[in-house]
């Protein structure tokens, strides 16, 4: 069956036809041409290939290619070249900087074999260059800042160690004082009512000596400051610091909460101890 259909197609392609042009009025034959279906198919295919070839040549070697939607224009192409040049310059500058730092390290270390190396012409790619500060760098910066603040506090205490009013305190929170300092009743701090989840700040630079949760005071934090000064933060929602962490004045160490038994709402219970004795924080800090 399939062979019969194939033979019929071949037979039709080989049939001879005559293309005639004649006068419509006199029916006089003006021009005629004999052709077959195979000739017509071959001619059409050849013309299509020629047109496709001409179209490809026009798009490849003439400005017509800019009419294509995804083809970059001349301005974009020039910008790409400029970006490549700038990237190469940045890589070269990074190489020079790294070489300078290496040489400087040798000089500071007193290495007598130090020599200034020439920057090579070929520059390695810095695709994985990490410009974020490392953990060690952050700890060093915090320690230096802490030492600077501690030095300032030490100078203040050197004049009069018993007078802490000269110190610059950072208010842990701002709010309404709901319960005042009362040494006789055993309330060794003050309660500052404020919005829940508000930031709790370190009053002075120091070291966290205790970070814990208890049934009575909830999440609590104690910070040791220079010259036997300790600040206490109770009833927090959560703590951001652990025992041994260094903090600077004003750094967020916790969030205001309502944890523990002895609390009636979101507030911070703040205590200040000097030389082992509680002092009234209101004498040194403005909480409003």
TrEMBL record:
Keywords: Hydrolase, Membrane, Signal, Transmembrane, Transmembrane helix. One of its GO terms (molecular function) is metalloendopeptidase activity. The keyword Membrane applies. SUPFAM superfamilies: Duplicated hybrid motif. Residues 186-281 form the M23ase beta-sheet core domain. It comes from the Bacteria. The chain crosses the membrane at residues 40-61. The keyword Hydrolase applies. InterPro entries: Cell_wall_metabolism_enzyme, Dup_hybrid_motif, M23ase_b-sheet_dom. Pfam families: Peptidase_M23. This is Murein hydrolase activator NlpD. It comes from Salinivirga cyanobacteriivorans. The lineage of its organism: Bacteria, Pseudomonadati, Bacteroidota, Bacteroidia, Bacteroidales.
